[in-house]
Amino acid sequence: MKTFGLRFSSFVVAALAAQTAAAVPSVSDVTLSQDGITRAVTVNYTLADEPAIITLDICTNGVSIGQQNVWAIDGDANKVIQPGSRSMVWHPDKSWPNQKFASGDGIELTAVVTAWNVDDPPMYLAADLVTGDISYYTCAEAVPGGVQDILYKTTSVLMRRIYARGKTFVMGSPSDEPGHFVSSASDHREDQHEVAFDNDYYIGVYEVTQQQYAQLTDKWPSYHSNAEWRATRPVENVSFATIRGSGTYYPDDPLGTSLLGRLRTKTGLAFDLPGCAQWEYAAKAGNGDGKWGDGTPISTALAAPTTNNSQDYEDAGYNEIGRNAYNNATKQYSADSSASATSNANADRTCGTDIVGNYRPNSWGLYDMHGNVYEFCNDPFGNDGTSNSVFANTYGGVPVSASGKYRVRKGGSFQRGPFRHRAAFQLSVDATAVNQDTGLRLAITLE
Q1: 136-142: long-range contacts (C-beta < 8 A, 24 or more apart)?
Q2: How confident is the model at residue 23 (pLDDT cuts 50, 70, 90)?
Q3: Which one of 51, 84, 118 terminates a domain?
Q4: What is the pTM assigned to this prediction?
Q5: Domain identity same for 85 and 171
Q6: Dihedral Cα 315, 316, 317, 323, nearest 10 deg
């Protein structure tokens, strides 16, 4: 191993103790060296006080080369590290090719090692569904291969942190929002109200795919099962009860045989379905009323049908944002059971559901929050058309009524036009029922 005469590393400690009483971990004794043949850069450091999540940045002459160039790292980085003397290896030939730096080039190479409190982790989390390993990344650019890499649609789950702790937002929609839905005088599902969050949370960058579901359960239950496309299409034809625990509508903890039970056992993390407020806050992504999650205005031509089963109307500007009945080749509606509307739904990816991530993400980098398949939320659906916990900051601790077998689903599907895809809209679904238009997205609430 050749050590160049470069300025040795600075280091940064993420002083994120404001949300936790735990001690702040510290990093010291950072050294840097490079192999003159492979160009691999070894960074040694000492972690003291507490376990921490360690991330790395590389600077030349004090300027970061960009996280998109520092993702190829082996060793003690991007995961929870125990205190002690540690080492990681960055491979610039993989993530920063065709760049040269060496002693005498006038370049000062600096390794910036950051220690994050484990209770206040970085923005992105990736869970390997094969090994159960958990990795963390500071931003989208730092995610190996980029967030659109097929890895995160097949054998790994990518989660994005939503910074919601101590924040409030207005849930629901104003009566003049295009598509605002009221089925009767007793329907309050889109009534506006303020929601306050006690916690940050992670939410899936994508809907759970068929390959991810099969990786955990060895099952392929989906209707849209064309072999060429099914792996990265969203899983559907699964029930709320199957996801959280068969034989119960609302278990305190997901059972080990359920999808979430298996995922918790595999990773050691408290994966769950998002609460209704968590889902809607993430879907709106900081955009105001009358807008889709990427900030695009909802067309004023969009109108809500008078009944649940009426055909709704097209928002032409929406077709690039989410899979819906107007960019789905079969243009089918749930009220239309004719053979002509459904016969081609499983033929290829131009019909029915689409591969996840094929439409524009919202402002927070989340894909398919509008359209493709409805997504289960972890809330009972109220008798008045609302979520029973719609006024709570999370679903936790909400009493389950006698009608608790009906759950909330949000986001719209390939079968319907855009008005049902608005973030404020929600429908009920029997917890034991399976539907080819309903799947899920994962969440983790940070304590």
Answers
A1: 136/53, 136/55, 136/78, 136/79, 137/55, 137/67, 137/71, 137/78, 138/55, 138/57, 138/67, 138/114, 139/67, 140/365, 141/66, 141/67, 141/68, 142/55, 142/67, 142/68, 142/70, 142/71
A2: low
A3: 118
A4: 0.88
A5: no
A6: 80
